[in-house]
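pinging the channel bc i need a second pair of eyes. not urgent but kinda urgent?? the chain im working w is below, pasted from the shared doc
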Amino acid sequence: MFENVDWAEIGRATVDTLLMLGGSLVLTVILGIPLGVLLYLSGKGRLASNPVLNAVLSLIVNVLRSVPFIILLIVMLPVTVLLVGTSLGVAGAIPPLVVGAAPFYARLVETALREVDKGVVEATQAMGGSTFQIVTRALLPEAMPGIIAGATVTAIALVSYTAMAGVVGAGGLGDLAVRFGYQRFQTDVMVVTVVLLLVLVQILQMIGDRLVAKVSHR
């Protein structure tokens, strides 16, 4: 049983997957929150309503979200090489992972902001708060449970993206599943990689749920 499994290789692949996930998730959050805030603020009837900006941002977000990730990986190969010097390994996987996940996360952030009680915003405005103060002291704190829940959903989506990235030489558990589990019909390798990915998803969900419960005002 598991005679084809090289546990040292599994360990290296797991580390690669965690590095891809961690690096891309941090950058996705850094880019996704401001983009989500802009989408919210520029919407109709919002604090900084700007139909043109909102339409442009929405178009970019919708286009990037609609492109299947495996196609995005291939299309971005020249850009990835330009940015990080390679299209292979962990470094080569992070740019397309971020481009694929950030628009998705931005929409989740926008949705979380829309669910904030208007009374909180109006109260901050009544106290003379600027748009920046309203965003940082009212909107983001009140929307934090939704923002964290969105980050959890995005992290889980990134796990599946990292598996697909293995197809183009990004390494990680997805690469092992394709090269050994699929191409060489080594079922035991496929089973181990799938179980590890499932465990990773469960851990991410548990962490996300606990953080949401911790920051929730309810």
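so The mean pLDDT is 89. and Residues 7-215 form a domain with the MetI-like fold fold (CATH 1.10.3720.10). — does that match what u expected or am i reading it wrong
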